[in-house]
Design a protein that fits this description.
The chain has two domains: about 180 residues, 3-Layer(aba) Sandwich (Rossmann fold), CATH 3.40.50.720; about 90 residues, no CATH class. By secondary structure, it is of the alpha/beta class. The strands form four sheets. Strands 3-2-1-4-5-6 form a six-stranded parallel β-sheet, with helices on both faces. It has a three-stranded mixed β-sheet with strand order 8-10-12. A two-stranded parallel ribbon has the order 7-11. The longest helix is centred in the first third of the chain and has 17 residues. The radius of gyration is 20 Å and the shape is globular.
Length: about 290
């Protein structure tokens, strides 16, 4: 039987790229989208050859019908509790009811299983959903890609082109931070979706670099040696993030408030992957740091 992969969140940047990678491999792809989905993004998917189903994500029968005949469900959904917990749970239940064998949740991040509770709100939501998957009978694979590499172009404290500074915390000037491009993440995810022996989790990184590495790279790529700046201890960073979050209750209803952005930076210096699964599949070409600065 031919593989049929269902992608939820296909109109988003990562979801669209996952669809593209599957289509490149001559795989049948079905995307489920909301009835009021972005017309331009839907047009891109249609041109790729993706089968598009518009549905009500709260309608379980529609979800079950969409999952029927599917070999793997890939979730690239983004959001807060109403999406990561509620919508993904509906999708998970529908996949199980339809007999889908494999589910890839929207866990595209650093390995949040190693993060303490309360240090990253968005990671905590993913942990909660992971408990639901692990109590179900479906085969699941979480893909941990570290940080998306495009963050290096955003003038964050880690790599600030405007101020020509590179930040670190505690004694972690040589701490290796995992980065993966969206293209590399999508290509790897497509192969995981076709892998009926994929393990519970897989860790990848296009490249891993430390703040000290970035100092050297800044000189090569930007023509100027950026200044390495210690921003305090990890304990101070954690405490500051908690204070910022407490002072901004409205941010709880926002995907990336400033304190959540800071929590992601904290996570970058708390978790790194060590052993990677980059070599699990043949033919992948991994991006390098100089292509992303």
């Amino acid at each position: 039987m031919e593989n049929l992969i269902l992608v939820a969140g296909a109109t988003g940047n990562l979801g669209q790229k996952i669809c593209r990678e599957l289509i490149k491999r001559n795989v049948n792809v079905r995307a489920i989208v909301r009835e009021n989905g972005n017309a331009e993004n839907l047009g891109v998917l249609e041109k790729m050859g993706v089968e598009i189903l518009k549905l009500d994500f709260s309608n379980q029968q529609q979800l079950i019908s969409a999952c029927t005949g599917v070999s793997c469900v890939v979730s690239a959904l983004a959001g807060l509790r109403d999406v990561i917990i509620d919508v993904q749970t509906e999708l998970l239940d529908a996949a199980i009811a339809a007999g889908v064998q494999h589910f890839i949740p929207s866990d595209f991040s650093s390995d949040f299983t190693a993060m303490p509770e309360g240090e990253n709100r968005n990671f905590d939501l993913r942990k909660e959903f992971m408990e639901k998957i692990d109590s179900s009978r479906i085969m699941a694979t979480s893909i941990f890609n570290g940080c998306f590499a495009d963050i290096l172009r955003y003038n964050t404290p880690l790599f600030n082109v405007r101020d020509q500074t590179i930040a670190y915390f505690g004694d972690k000037a040589d701490w290796k931070i995992d980065f993966t491009t969206m293209d590399d993440t999508a290509a790897f995810t497509a192969l995981v979706a076709l892998d009926d022996k994929a393990p519970r989790s897989l860790k990848i990184a296009s490249f891993s670099v430390s703040p000290n590495d970035l100092v050297q790279i800044s000189e090569q790529s930007k023509g100027s040696r950026f200044k390495l700046v210690k921003m305090g201890t990890m304990e101070e960073f954690s405490a500051t993030n908690k204070l910022l979050r407490a002072a901004d209750p409205a941010g709880e209803n926002t995907l990336y408030p400033k304190w959540q952005q800071a929590q992601y930076l904290y996570s970058m210096f708390f978790v790194h992957h060590g052993t990677l699964a980059n070599d699990r599949y043949e033919g992948l070409q991994w991006s390098v740091v100089t292509e992303n600065i």
